[in-house]
Amino acid sequence: MGMEYIYAALTLYELKQPITEENLEKIFEALNVEPDKAMIKHLVESLKEVNIEEALKTPVQMAAPAAAPPAQAEEKKEEEEKKEEKKEEEEEAMAGLSALFG
Question: Is residue 95 domain-resident?
């Protein structure tokens, strides 16, 4: 549904005017925009079951950020393993050198 229709309905609500097809059409006509009458009818029917005041008071739940994708976690794990291997190789090389020069 076009947000402009919802904004028009909220404008009527804030001005304490009834949200009717006629009032919504007037808003669009005042803006020199051809209203989609089917959209307006659908919106008015949908809003009949909604308590707008309560809907506006209810905080919007934001989705929690997603966890790092497994691929990134896997890459970090591989990087750590490579660092460990490199460190072990360096230690072995140092051990070999100390055996030579004892």
Answer: yes
